[in-house]
Design a protein that fits this description.
Layout: E1 7-11, E2 17-23, E3 26-29, E4 55-63, E5 66-76
Antiparallel strand pairs: 1-2, 2-3, 4-5
């Protein structure tokens, strides 16, 4: 789960919305195909205290003990539930 300060929404010039997540010291773009827009695919509703938190599934690529890139597989905006 991500704190509010670790993800952000970006309104693009074409009117669409994109997302970024903060990992380490860098912001990464969430690929559109990784964004979950259907709450029925999210599993059971989380406990109320964690309902607003964004969720992400990613795998980092490491080089010399530092994250050089990440692959984002799934991202759910914090207000989906």
């Amino acid at each position: 789960m991500l704190d509010d300060s670790d993800w952000r929404a970006i309104d693009k010039p074409d009117g669409s919305r994109a997302y970024q997540i903060h990992v380490g010291s860098r912001w990464y773009d969430v690929p559109p195909k990784a964004v979950v827009n259907d709450v029925s695919k999210c599993g059971p509703e989380p406990v109320p205290a964690k309902r607003a938190m964004a969720k992400v599934w990613y795998a980092p690529s490491w080089e010399m003990n530092a994250i050089v890139n990440i692959n984002i597989y799934c991202f759910m905006v914090g207000t989906m539930y």
